[in-house]
Structures are given as structure tokens and as C-alpha cells.
Amino acid sequence: MEKEAIDGLRLKHRSDNFTLLLLLMLLTPTTIAWTGEIRGRVVCDVCGDSSIGPEDHVLEGAEVAVLCITKTGEVVNYQAFTNSKGVYTVAETMSESEHWDACLARPISSFHEQCNHLRDGSSGVKFTYKRPSGYSYTLKPFVYRFANAPIYC
């Protein structure tokens, strides 16, 4: 009889836990997660000829700032550095109702000794972010140039 009473108590305890879990699930607001990504490259236009050729190279460690406004009006500021392939990436996961609406990406600096002057037209880009969750928005490369082009150009 004692064992039956204990088993009944365990069953009641499990039933109370299930009820509490069910109640929490029903009362907790569900939010759908949204993930966005912005990526681009930073390159060095060695000859300053405005075209990417074999003499040009990517810039590792270049700094890029990305400023985004969400659908709810929140301003979010990101900082990114390029990897060895000259690629920077900014990614965020947030509520679907609050995801990015519009963004501004701009180069901040190049730490390359000689290639550290921004080419005209490479000062930044504004864009509306309309990608669904899980998709990336790729920007045109930001281009730096040499202060003095090498002789072979």
C-alpha cells in the first residue's frame, strides 16, 4: 500500500509538471527569428585605373562600419574587419518583426602602408534590406588606391 501511495504521488507530481510546462508554453509569446547578413570585399586598385586586374589585391584587416535601422526604428551599429580574402561580414539574428529595414555601409580605414586612399565613389552605400531570413546581401567592393601609382602602371 505504501508503494502505491508513492507511485500515485509521483504520477501527480509528473502531471503537475506537465500542466505547468503546458501553461508556460501557452503564455509565452512566440517570436519568429530572422537572420540577416551583409557582406562585401575591400580591394586595392594598385594602378588607380578603376578596374580590378591582376596587379590589384584584396586588403586584409580593412575596417568597415555598417549602420542599420530596424523596422521598429532601432539603430544598430556594426564594425567588421576583412579577412585574408578581403571579405567582411556582418550578421544578426533578431525577431522577424524587428529586422533590418535600411542600412549604410562605409569603409573606415585600410591599414595597408601604401594602399590607404579611398577611390572616389567608394565612400559608402545606402540600401534597403529586403532579403528574407537566411539570405545574404552582397555589396560592391570598396576600393582603396595607392597614393602614388607604381611605375609599371
Describe the 3D structure.
This protein is an alpha+beta fold and 153 residues long. The protein folds into 2 domains: 30 residues; 114 residues, Immunoglobulins (Immunoglobulin-like). It is built from 1 helix and 10 strands; from the N terminus they run αββββββββββ. Strands 1, 2, 5, 7, 9 and 10 form a 6-stranded mixed sheet that branches. A 4-stranded antiparallel sheet has the order 4-3-6-8, with no helix packed on it.
Task: Briefly characterize the structure.
By secondary structure, the protein is α+β, with helices and mostly antiparallel strands. It has 1 helix and 10 strands, in the order H-E-E-E-E-E-E-E-E-E-E.
Salient structural properties:
alpha+beta, 10 strands, Immunoglobulin-like, elongated, 4-stranded antiparallel β-sheet
* Tertiary shape: elongated
CATH superfamily of the largest domain: Immunoglobulins
**CATH architecture descriptor text of the largest domain:** Sandwich
Computed Rg: 26 Å
Element-level helix/strand string = HEEEEEEEEEE
Low confidence ranges: 5-15, 20-28
Query: By helix and strand content, what is the structural category?
Result: alpha+beta
**Beta-strand fraction estimate:** 35-45%
- Distance between termini? 97 Å
Task: Please count the beta strands (DSSP E, at least 2 residues each).
Answer: 10
**Largest pleated sheet:** 6 strands, mixed
